[in-house]
Each structure stands twice: as C-alpha cells, then as structure tokens.
Amino acid sequence: MSGVTVRKIESAADRHRALEVIEQVFRREKNWISAVHEQMPEGVENDSRVSWFLAEVNGRPAGIIRLLYDPPLELPEGYGVSFEPGVDLEKLRTAGRYAEIGRFMILGEYRRNPRVALRLMRSATAEVVERDYTHFITDVFEGEANSPFNFHTRVLGFEVVGKHLFGDLNCSSTRIILTLDILKLYRRVKNSRSRIYMELTEGIRTVMERKAAMRGRRTVSGA
C-alpha cells in the first residue's frame, strides 16, 4: 500500500472515479444518501467555490475530500444547533477565513492505511493556505463507526464548538461541529519529528515558504 497519491479533481474522468467512492461509502455502506450524482454534480470540477481531491492507492480510487470555501457559519434553524459554553458565533466569524471540510470518506479496505487520510488532509490544507484561508470547519457524527473524530481532535487539534441534531445526510446521529486554526496547528507541530506531522505539514510548509519568498521579492522590488 505504498503507492498513495492525491490530486485535485479537475476532469470528468476523475469525477467519475470519485463517484465510485461516494457510491461505495455513502450509499451502499452508510445508506446516508439515495442519489450519488447529486453529491458531486457534473461540472463541479470547474466551480471555484469548491475543491474536491481524490486519493488513489496503486492507481485505484481510495478516498475523497471536499472543500467548500466561505461557508455560512449560521446553520438553518431546523438543524437544532447548540454551541459550547463560551463559544460566540460572531467571534468565530471574525477569527479568520473558513473552508469547510465535507464528504471526507475512505473505502473500507484502505482505512487501515493512515497515509490515505493524511495525504488527503495534506493536499486540502495546502490548497486552503494557498488561497489565504486560515481555518477549517467540519462536522463529524457522534458515535458513528469509523468516525474521524479522534483523528481530527487528537492528531490535528480540532476543537469542539457545538453540535446540531439534523443535517443534509440521512443519519440520526448528532453532528459535532469542529474548527481548526491551521496556522496554530502548523506552529505547534512544524518542528515535530513525528512521521504523521511531517507528512501533514509538508504541504503547508511548501506553500508558506513560497509565499514568504514572493513577499521578499516584492519588498526588494519596491525598495
């Protein structure tokens, strides 16, 4: 399982491969949806408001992740939202620029390979930093089998900010709302020798170093 690759979905062929993952995980395994194509409409690969990434293992589709830029932080009233004590929605809104992680799924046969999830997150993080976003926001299901909750909170440092009872997927579990300050994560683990953190932060480091170099060249030119 060493051949893990991730690329941004920018073609109809890659969209088709991603739909295979959605079909297997969200429709057949979880039964959370009834229509697969609605999850990733035709032409979405050209939509600047969203980014999808496809992970493959030795050339076979293994997982996907979706990024939605500038999502509304106010959820519909019917979702039954409650925030943690001390969490203020206005402070969340002004903390930075948010990208929502959604439709993060990995085929069952590849879930024991942590590199699939890590490389999807690495690509997603590099993308949002490149686009000058500073925070992630996401939902995970409480008590759901194969939930990424522990990965998000213990490994990445996501913080619980609230919950909501209902959403757009056919699942009765409570949704836990999590946020992550990306630069805070980077500062915390950038010097770690852990393979997990080295794998995760490689993409962030590359983008930040390139941006720093560009700022330096602009400063010299302006002088």
In brief:
By secondary structure, this protein is of the alpha+beta class.
Topology readout:
Elements: E1 4-8, H1 12-29, E2 50-57, E3 60-69, E4 81-83, H2 89-94, E5 98-106, H3 114-130, E6 135-141, H4 149-156, E7 159-164, E8 175-181, H5 182-189, H6 195-222
Parallel strand pairs: 5-6
Antiparallel strand pairs: 1-2, 2-3, 3-5, 4-7, 6-8, 7-8
Helix pairs in contact: 3-6
How would you portray this structure in words?
The chain is α+β, with helices and mostly antiparallel strands. The protein has a single domain (4-221), classed as Aminopeptidase. Helix content is 38%, strand content 25%. It is built from six helices and eight strands, in the order βαβββαβαβαββαα. It has helices at residues 12-29, 89-94, 114-130, 149-156, 182-189, 195-222; strands at 4-8, 50-57, 60-69, 81-83, 98-106, 135-141, 159-164, 175-181. An eight-stranded mixed β-sheet has the order 1-2-3-5-6-8-7-4, sandwiched between helices. The model has no long low-confidence stretch (mean pLDDT 89).
